[in-house]
UniProtKB/TrEMBL annotation:
<dbReference type="InterPro" id="IPR007024">
    <property type="entry name" value="BLUF_domain"/>
</dbReference>
<dbReference type="InterPro" id="IPR036046">
    <property type="entry name" value="Acylphosphatase-like_dom_sf"/>
</dbReference>
<protein>
    <submittedName>
        <fullName>BLUF domain-containing protein</fullName>
    </submittedName>
</protein>
<dbReference type="Pfam" id="PF04940">
    <property type="entry name" value="BLUF"/>
</dbReference>
<feature type="domain" description="BLUF">
    <location>
        <begin position="1"/>
        <end position="92"/>
    </location>
</feature>
């Protein structure tokens, strides 16, 4: 199994309604091929983690990297793993809310979130905190 964390920037082809479509398709397709993960989106950048078998994760990333709604896709981290951090969801998601902005600041120490400046460890730590925030919201 592998974990891939990447970031990309939206293009002018991206529409606000696309995020719901992206999540719906990702959840259906990822569940069918046993890929899990989490997507964070702040209306400018995507930061996403994918976990699963190497071939499946690589194929998904290739589709994302060639999607006209994304530009400047960059892999922040890619590694073999023995367990999943995001095993609960075929694709978890936290909307751009105040708690998400606080987490961005906690991990980047900047009010201007730029995932391109993150390394693998800080990106993973941020995504784990987002995962925990989603779990709290689901329990409320």
């Amino acid at each position: 199994m592998v974990r891939l964390i990447y970031t990309s920037t939206i293009t002018d082809k991206f529409e606000v309604s696309d995020i719901a479509r992206i999540l719906k398709i990702a959840r259906e397709k990822n569940k069918a091929i046993d890929v899990t993960g989490l997507l964070s989106f702040n209306r400018r950048f995507f930061l996403q983690c994918l976990e699963g078998e190497r071939d499946q994760v690589n194929q998904i990333y290739h589709k994302i990297a060639t999607d006209p709604r994304h530009k400047i896709p960059v892999i922040i981290d890619y590694q073999e793993i023995t367990h999943r951090e995001f095993d609960v969801w075929s694709m978890g998601y936290l909307q751009d809310v105040e708690s998400l902005r606080e987490l961005f600041y906690k991990h980047t120490k900047s009010i201007n979130f730029d995932p391109y400046k993150m390394n693998g460890d800080t990106a993973k730590a941020l995504l784990i905190d987002i995962r925990d925030e989603i779990k709290k919201a689901e329990q409320a």
